[in-house]
Amino acid sequence: MxxxxxxxxxxxxxxxxxxxxxxxxxxIAIFLIVRGSVTFTQFHHSVAEFLFSSDWSPEDSAGxxxxxxxxxxxIVGSLLTCGLALLIAAPFSIAAAVFITEISPELGxxxxxxxxxxxxxxxxxxxxxxxxTVLVPWIRDAFNAPMGGYSVLAAGIVLAVMIFxxxxxxxxxxxxxxxxxxxxxxxxxxxxxxxxxxxxxxxAAMPGIxxxxxxxxxxxxxxxxxxxxxxxxxxxxxxSILSPTNNLTSAIASDMGNSANGGEMNMAxxxxxxxxFLISIACILVIHLISARSQKxxxxx
Amino acid sequence: xxxxxxxxxxxxxxxxxxxxxxxxxGSSAGSTTTAAGSTTTKAAGSTTTKAAxxxxxxxxxxxxxxxxxxxxVQDAADAFMAENPDxxxxxxxxxxxxxxxxxxxxxxxxxxxxxxxxxxxxxxxxAQLEDHEVCTVTMAPIVNxxxxxxxxxxxxLVKIFTGEITNWSAVGGPDExxxxxxxxxxxxTRTLFxxxxxxxAEESSSSALETDDSGTLLQNVADNKNxxxxxALSYLVSNSSVQAVSIDGVAPTLENxxxxxxxxxxxxxxxxxxxxxxxxxxxFINYMMGDAYSSKLEGMxxxxxxxxxxxxxxxxxx
Lengths: 301, 318
What we know:
The complex is a heterodimer of chains A (301) and B (318).
Chain A: H1 2-36, H2 38-41, H3 47-52, H4 72-103, H5 105-121, H6 124-143, H7 152-176, H8 180-188, H9 193-222, H10 225-230, H11 248-255, H12 264-298
Helix pairs in contact in A: 1-12, 4-5, 4-7, 4-9, 5-7, 6-7, 7-9, 8-9, 9-12, 11-12
Chain B: H1 3-29, E1 59-65, H2 70-83, E2 87-94, H3 96-105, E3 110-113, H4 117-120, H5 123-127, E4 129-144, E5 151-152, H6 154-161, E6 179-182, H7 188-196, E7 208-210, H8 214-223, E8 227-232, E9 242-244, E10 246-247, H9 254-258, E11 265-273, H10 279-289, H11 291-299, E12 303-304, H12 310-315
Parallel strand pairs in B: 1-2, 1-3, 5-10, 6-7, 6-8
Antiparallel strand pairs in B: 3-11, 4-8, 4-9, 4-11, 4-12
């Protein structure tokens, strides 16, 4: 009995919990694949139409089909906003990570890092709300944006603020884990601190930094609420970053409750959900590839 | 105590509070299926009522669906529960499609919808449901107060919403580009507006901002001088920040809806499932449609179904 308590009880508990999580993930994946593929199997749309056409006019009643399910506008909208968010957030995040690890570790760990972590805890609806009440009118007035300031730019900035802590935290951890021997060797050869950061720390930490960027990208892709509040949700390709457009998550969120269950529109929305799921899997795969590669490099193979 | 111990104690306390909260929610929600998304609990069988001789209604009623109807059902539920203390009503949104699906599955007693069940469910499932046209809802085009436009012809309205007219000067307004603000294509408000105000013309989605809810739409119209959108009259009773627009000279009011001169309106539906024990649910629906509640209903901007004149009903036949 004692033996059971000392060894097996904990093991069984942990195994059950772990197994449950794996099963849950698999079930969600299977569910998404089953629902998301109906558009292509039952409603006879091609994958190419779904990905590359911009004709979005699905039927919204049970059983009827024959409309268009082209989601190119939503996909391009997601790519554009996430790309813009990365362009804005990545330089700031890497700079912040360098600051808290190399430039001012004291201030960085005591003040800067906790401050960054607070950002993670702010609910996305708050980001969206602030974006809508502060950012959107500002863009309207500052750039004379055509549709009241609702724009790709607004969505990109809101997303950038949201993914900034993710990239910063992961990048900082990665820079911190670069061996001090490298730094000492660089200083020994007469490098300045900046030369050491630029030529030694950053390249050595690059796999970790890339992982942070991809994690941020995955978060940006999945974010619905905050983006939906500032993107304008116009079903058109944007003319400029000041024009409104729409993205995958907003499209799902705005029509999922009202559309007829099992109808063409509803199922096309599930296909978008499946696409988002595949994108996040792809991101995770890339992260694994990067870390596998860097491990090889470290071992000198 | 060390710092770590303090932290650990704090974490335990917080976890405990959250767990207690979850259990508390669970015990009250378990039998009534409050979550809009859950479809597992069969609530239809849990509705119990005393013998018909007792005047008071008791039991549990669950309703979900249309967000346009939500404030009214919520208000009526509070009033009904005050009169029948043994009755518990929980109301959720989730959208018309969700409401219809859930009542069809037996997950809730009442499914609220802006549209007919036939539009969202397959014929077999729709035939299983009983329609209650609890009230009417009138949709009004709205513009910014500073724009100076108070009336539009149906023709101009169609041209504005289809993107054919893009400047206010074409309809007697200032020289400003028109900013269209619409609702998602699955929205009941949009469906009604398209059918009765735009004569079935499809709105131009490629040049319009889309907002998830009428409150946001209203705010956007109030914030942008060149904007036009549409909301249910119920959103305008307590809000004077925007200008409601007359169509062909007829103002969007309840009186004009009743007498048939204003045509952009529709019934709000509360569906129950045939064959289930709906005594409490039907008592509640009858209360909402009854005379005692009608002035409250009108006060919130909805129309009383029984006040619709034959004229208005005839004009609305397809």
